[in-house]
Design goal:
By secondary structure, this protein is an alpha+beta fold. It is built from 13 helices and seven strands. The strands form two sheets. A five-stranded antiparallel β-sheet has the order 1-5-4-3-2. A two-stranded antiparallel ribbon has the order 6-7.
Length: 292
């Protein structure tokens, strides 16, 4: 029934792209109801300015991605697919001398910093990750989306579009408890929903102005702002100050130190300013131990 609503596009990458690794960093676990990886394909359901939509991105070969889209927002997704896949990113500009980073950049040449241009919904799931175990955040996201979202357009069953901001804004704080979300995070979710239009405006703003707008929201600190900016706006220099695991990963990988701190992480990442999020993504790609 969906063929009549199908839009398609082919993307070509001169230097290649690792589609799954580029996209999967924004996935809330393997059971994410909004983003599913199947082989060389990534299915993503989202709420665009034109309405709900689903896209399927298939890696045909290292240099070619085929995109299908369904739903009222299909045309919007087709238009923004290149940015999502990182066509505007410049990974070749990153030329580290540090041996491990040089090896990882060589081993993962197709890892790109894409952007979803979905600021509010990114803020939702990033907020759920605040100060809780990762798997608990993933569970909360699954419960919230299935209860408040809607089945996604397109042929893939079980895929859901995240809830609209007005529905989150109307929810009383106690109603989030059934999703495993306490009052503090619930209040932040509701604040994000109230200013959702202001959040989406950051798509056309400078990163500096976007960060200032994010940080003006109560409960959105440096970690949350950086995560949202990296995923939604494609900031390759986002720095995750306040993360429980990343300071140790950075310190162990770049300095051979077993334990790290935010201050030490910033010191070690400073030579790569402009690409600090890329460094972290590469380290995560090559990590020999779980970090999330």
């Amino acid at each position: 029934m969906w063929d009549s609503h199908l839009l398609s596009r082919t993307l070509e990458f001169e230097r290649g792209v690792d589609l799954v690794r580029t996209m999967a960093h924004g996935r809330m676990g393997s059971g994410d109801p909004c983003l599913r990886v199947t082989g060389n394909s990534v299915w993503r359901a989202t709420r665009t300015p034109c309405g709900p939509a689903t896209e399927r991105l298939e890696l045909v070969d290292r240099h070619t991605v085929y995109v299908n889209a369904w739903g009222p927002g299909a045309e919007w997704l087709i238009e923004h697919a290149p940015a999502l896949c990182g066509t505007h990113d410049e990974p070749e500009a990153f030329r580290p001398e540090q041996p491990l980073l040089r090896e990882l950049a060589h081993r993962h040449p197709g890892l790109r910093m894409g952007r979803t241009d979905a600021v509010f919904e990114t803020g939702l799931f990033v907020t759920l990750e605040q100060r809780v175990a990762t798997r608990d955040a993933w569970q909360s996201w699954r419960l919230l989306v299935r209860a408040l979202g809607e089945p996604a357009p397109g042929p893939l069953p079980g895929l859901y579009v995240p809830p609209p901001p007005e529905r989150i804004a109307r929810m009383p704080t106690f109603a989030f408890h059934r999703f495993g979300v306490e009052r503090r995070r619930a209040d932040i979710l509701r604040r994000l929903a109230v200013v959702a239009c202001r959040l989406e405006e950051t798509i056309g703003m400078s990163l500096e102005a976007a960060y200032a707008r994010f940080r003006a929201i109560g409960g959105v600190g440096p970690w949350t702002a950086a995560r949202v900016a990296m995923l939604a706006l494609g900031d390759p220099d986002a720095v995750f100050v306040g993360d429980l695991h990343l300071p140790h990963l950075v310190s162990a990988s770049l300095a051979g130190e077993r334990r790290g701190s935010d201050e030490r992480m910033l010191e070690l990442l400073e030579p790569y300013r402009g690409h600090r999020a890329r460094v972290v993504r590469l380290l995560l790609a090559g990590a020999k131990f779980p970090v999330r």
